[in-house]
Design goal:
Layout: H1 4-20, H2 27-32, E1 34-36, E2 46-48, E3 58-61, E4 64-67, H3 69-73, E5 81-83, E6 90-98, E7 103-110, E8 125-129, E9 165-172, E10 175-180, E11 183-189, H4 193-200, E12 217-220, E13 227-236
Antiparallel strand pairs: 1-13, 2-5, 3-4, 4-13, 5-12, 6-9, 6-13, 7-8, 7-12, 9-10, 10-11
Length: 237
């Protein structure tokens, strides 16, 4: 009986410490150069593509950035959310959760220019999807963790709808490595012979500007379905 209280106290401390890890950085992460791109409270550091600020279609709810479909129905303008800053070489980590039948994506190397009307016209994408119920789930190279429409994941590592997935994109001198829930899903190099072949066999083969920018914004895609993102952090390399 004497050990019950200490064990209970230790359990509560463990749970509290675990909760604090979302949208925060440890002392070790700060020392290593990690930076939060989202602190769980507001949309600072982000704006809607080709807009000065983040539109009302993106809201912060329970410590996550989420698309507000009800707000859209009431006239709020949609659009992909992009970082204010541009990045070239980095380690990006975040968590995402998708709605039933939902579709979204993490788009990077996005060039922001009015001549490109959308983030995906220049930026490659790590797919975010309900693989089981969205039609794209039946299309090769369109599943969660894939390099969208270019390269299929070596393993389907996505968790079921309603659960948080941990995504990581490592980009160094054009070399890309994707992880989903700790499983390496993609490895390739932008501009390489393999990349050119992947591009030639994709829907982007004739898209001038696609994948051509080494430095660019990071985007969270508004594909018309509810999605949640949190614990977004980056370490510039």
């Amino acid at each position: 009986m004497k050990n019950i209280v200490p064990v209970l106290a230790l359990s509560l401390i463990t749970l509290s410490t675990s909760a604090q890890k979302v949208n925060t950085l440890t002392a070790q992460e700060k020392k290593a150069g990690w930076k939060l791109l989202f602190d769980g409270t507001d949309k600072a550091g982000w704006h809607t593509y080709l807009k000065k600020e983040a539109t009302a279609s993106w809201q912060v709810v329970d410590g996550a950035l989420t698309t507000d479909e009800a707000a859209k129905k009431n006239g709020a303008e949609g659009g992909d959310l992009v970082t204010n800053d541009e990045y070239e070489n980095y380690d990006l980590q975040l968590e995402w959760k998708i709605s039933e039948g939902g579709n979204s994506g993490i788009i990077f190397s996005v060039h922001e220019d009015p001549k490109f009307g959308a983030t995906y016209l220049t930026g490659p994408e790590m797919q975010v999807l309900d693989d089981a119920k969205h039609p794209d789930g039946k299309i090769t190279k369109h599943n969660s963790g894939d390099l969208y429409d270019m390269k299929k994941s070596v393993s389907n590592a996505a968790k079921p709808v309603g659960e948080w997935n941990k995504a990581r994109i490592l980009k160094k001198d054009g070399h890309l490595t994707f992880w989903l829930n700790g499983t390496k899903t993609i490895e390739t190099t932008m501009g390489s012979d393999e990349w050119k072949e992947l591009l030639a066999n994709s829907k982007f083969k004739n898209w001038k500007g696609f994948g051509e920018y080494a430095k660019g914004h990071i985007a969270l895609q508004d594909h018309g379905d509810q999605v949640w993102y949190r614990d977004i952090k980056i370490r510039v390399l």
